[in-house]
Input
Amino acid sequence: MISKGRNAQPKGSRHGMSKLSDADVRRIRALRGKRRQADIAVSFGISQSEVSDIQTGKRWRHVTGL
Output
């Protein structure tokens, strides 16, 4: 199972409870320094701390590029 990569948990938009897509995460990162995190959070329907974690790379680090 492990050698065939079948043990990985779904990440990001593949997870059934995800509110964001990979494109949303890229937009959130692009808005860093341009809008307040609280305002970004409201527009995407997530918490301010989630926005902070996305922008600092603590969450959604598998999404790359802008």
